[in-house]
């Protein structure tokens, strides 16, 4: 049984709809106008809204817009006279679940009602397991047509060795898509090696990507294969490729053209045999126009371009992802949570999500940690959303985090040799030891064999 709000300014049709729904075991709520319907929503939430399109005062589309702002997950069915079907089709594009032309048969009405209620129930259900043969994309949860189109294109390009450039805002899942492409390709049995180009100190980029030989520079105490050699036979994922310095772009272009690398200080070329997937949250064509990115490298990387939508552009996935994160995080933190309370999912769906899926996961994690009841309450969700603006790291903390990451990179590169690491950082040994002490880093932990 479901509570269904029906809205029509024709009393006879309103009574007929109410009778049909009651005969099928549902609980109908009647409203003779859009304003009455909004007042009914203040008293309790239905599982479905059925409204006439043409009504005096507030029409069906105006009612839909008002309801959708408050309850974006509530499915809405629109009743339409024959001449208003084109308007109903436009309504579908705005998010109306479905429409039913008048006059209609009782079985047609109930078929649409059952379809809408089934869709509403799936928003609170666990994500079903991946279909057979779909394990390559199992980490990407979606019911968005836009995302499905991206995945269909990704599946096609995975069958080739073409370079792929993934564009999308930060936190939208670019690395997940790269891993899905790798998993669907003939290279799935070989490694996928991922690197964030913006996180590598500029003087270490070439060594990180292409390797170095012992003695190539101060601190190079042993041979080190680069990421392109480590990924041989597989895939290299270059995240935030737009942050790569211009000098490194020249060398990367040469590697892509020749299919082989030379380690820093080395005297021989090594065949790479890798597939390259790159990603950026910035438009690389804009970077090319601004002179910050090489045009020839852009064309080499941009053989196939895939565009990931922002989370705000795939709102039908928000409830699905939130439920998944809740189940996973509740298990991690040993919290016996049964789900989201009334209104909580609606608050999540209506939020702006500038940080995309990564931000959604962060909000759900906060709610799981702070939740004291069997469900995550709407008030807790709203509080977590309100606190997001204060989550930006203060400058001093951000600088400390960068400093620690930089030191770790140096110690990895020099295998824990403090003298060599200090020279690379252009600091004296005393200052360098002080830095290591400040971040509680032990050089011995980076020595080979440990």
Automatic annotation (TrEMBL):
Positions of post-translational 4-aspartylphosphate modification: 52
Every Response regulatory domain range: 3-117
Keywords annotated in UniProt: ATP-binding, Nucleotide-binding, Phosphoprotein, Transcription, Transcription regulation
Occurrences of domain Sigma-54 factor interaction (ranges): 140-369
Record's keyword annotation contains ATP-binding: yes
One of the record's GO molecular function terms: ATP binding
Highest taxon above the source species: Bacteria
InterPro entries associated with the record: AAA+_ATPase (IPR003593), AAA_lid_NorR (IPR058031), CheY-like_superfamily (IPR011006), Homeodomain-like_sf (IPR009057), P-loop_NTPase (IPR027417), Sig_transdc_resp-reg_receiver (IPR001789), Sigma_54_int (IPR002078), Sigma_54_int_dom_CS (IPR025944)
A Pfam family per the record: AAA_lid_14
Cited PROSITE patterns: RESPONSE_REGULATORY (PS50110), SIGMA54_INTERACT_3 (PS00688), SIGMA54_INTERACT_4 (PS50045)
GO biological process, one term: phosphorelay signal transduction system
Name this polypeptide is given: Response regulator
Organism placement in taxonomy: Bacteria, Pseudomonadati, Pseudomonadota, Betaproteobacteria, Burkholderiales
